[in-house]
Design brief:
With 235 residues, this protein is an alpha/beta fold. The protein has 9 helices and 10 strands.
Amino acid sequence: MMKFAGSGVLSALLICSILPVQPVAAAGRLVAFRAADGHSATGLLMEASQRPAPAVVLVPMLGASKDELQAVGQRLAEANITALAIDLPGSSVPGEAGALAAWNGDVRAALDYLASRPEVRATALGVAGASLGANLAAVVAGSDPRVRSLALVSPTLDYRGVRIEQAMRQYGARPALLMASLKDSYSARSIRDLTKDPPGTREVRWSEASAHGLVLLAREPDLVRALVEWFQRTL
């Protein structure tokens, strides 16, 4: 049985065969927005044709970029949900204690950006993330009531100090979708713990593929479809 813990090295190695990337012009446009600490963050915006539309922030795994989420974002846009795939502040685990947890600031800034757009329905915002991105998404969703729906791919209870148990309790009765491979032992155990006596809707999707994070989505197209349908139902 393969184990996929929160390892930055493993995440980087898995990126080699991620979701297919199409030319940016065909599926979105680059945008920039200011994070709370003042640095300029970047994202790939894929807009719904009918507006104002619900919107979702897509957060990648460590070592991946917004481009690896382009195919998912395009599927959301085709389902009339605007998607903003973002880059993380770095591609490896920072050396300073607590620095990784502070990366959730870019997710919050992405939500601010979407909420400020007239073509976005600010009362229908969601967040989805993979691996480290899932943990960052959960941390933000737990403390930001603007997040109405959440999707976590291969989350873990603790990704190098980015813990999500308390965040999910704070998230409360709002709906969450959790997905992982049954062969990804830490993520599978984490999901089981997070869905014990939940205060609200917690939908779980399992896979038999030996994969983690975005690689899991690449190998299991049904999970991408489930993610899109989830946000269609809950936003």
